[in-house]
Amino acid sequence: ATPMSIMTATGRGAQVGVLIKNAEALERFETIDTLIVDKTGTLTEGKPRLVAVTAEPGFEQTELLRLAASLERGSEHPLAEAIVRGAEERGLELASAEDFEAITGKGVIGRVADKSVALGNLALITDMGLDGRSLSEQANVRRDDGETVMFVVVGGQIAGLVAVADPIKESTPDAIRSLHELGLTIIMATGDNERTAQAVAARLGIDEVRAGVLPEDKAKLIRDLQMKGTKVAMAGDGVNDAPALAQADVGIAMGTGADVAIESAGITLVRGNLDGIVRARRLAQVTMRNIR
Ligand code: ADP
Ligand code: MG
User: Fold this and answer.
1) Which atom from ligand 1 is nearest to the alpha carbon of 102?
2) For the CA atoms of the chain, what is the radius of gyration?
3) For the domain that residue 96 is a member of, what is the CATH number?
4) How far is CA 3 from the centre of its chain?
5) Which residue range forms the structural domain that includes residue 125?
6) ipTM of this model?
7) What is the mean pLDDT of each run of 10 residues along the chain (292 residues)?
8) Which of the ligands is closest to the CA of residue 238?
9) For residue 239, how far is the Cα from the chain centroid?
10) Which of 61, 221, 266, 289 has the most crowded CB, counting CB atoms within 10 A?
């Protein structure tokens, strides 16, 4: 590739908020046939909102939210922010947590006042030897609406659930449509629950869904596809996505996301909208065509 046309392309990209790190990223991007996308913060706003708290018999809704939010103050996860904000908006006085621990892709555990508290997905409570059967119907109704449901455990007992909704970005549906028109296969990979993931994917016409994926498994999913000869781009925003962004033939970070994601990526979408990928793809095609 001649440096001049690459420079023209990267310059044009920059003007529209698509930062291309080097010639290699641009050259490779033209050969991509599959795009893996993270859900939270990539397809969705990544600014989730608390929409429900339900308590099991023997537990009180407000107290449950207070305990959950007190624990989540120690977490930087967008879901945690939603729960803390939700509690603050309801005027709750939060306590400080002790022995706080974040369990990647699963949730958080710790102690608030004298109570052990845990908050997270089914994998987390399964690890604790619990099952969420009494809440599964309620949880599924919410997941079918695309909401993320987290179980709250207090004193070793399932105490209730909190539900959080994260709207799809306004730019996402059109971007997915255009990416399909450009011939890409689109796979969603998310740490979230299967049902929630399927609900979001169905709305967007995404080709394939891998749910309940741990961060290290996102990179493995990409490696497996690459072994079959697939050329893979990965778009993500989180600290969790960094290994996958590095593994992909081209990593695409949301400019609105974590610094480590941006460092791991070959392309950064300044505005954090997927329509930047459509532009990058067209730029790559035009540039490589001109060079040949
Ligand atoms: P994603 O791939 O969608 O960005 P993550 O891998 O970060 O998701 O998280 C996967 C799941 O683990 C979440 O959907 C949630 O159920 C649970 N989880 C992770 N972090 C937290 C937290 N701080 N509080 C509660 N649940 C959490
Ligand atoms: Mg994310």
Assistant:
1) 23
2) 21
3) 3.40.1110.10
4) 35
5) 49-165
6) 0.94
7) 78 93 92 95 93 97 98 92 97 96 94 96 96 94 96 98 96 96 96 94 97 91 98 92 95 93 95 93 88 78
8) 2
9) 10
10) 266
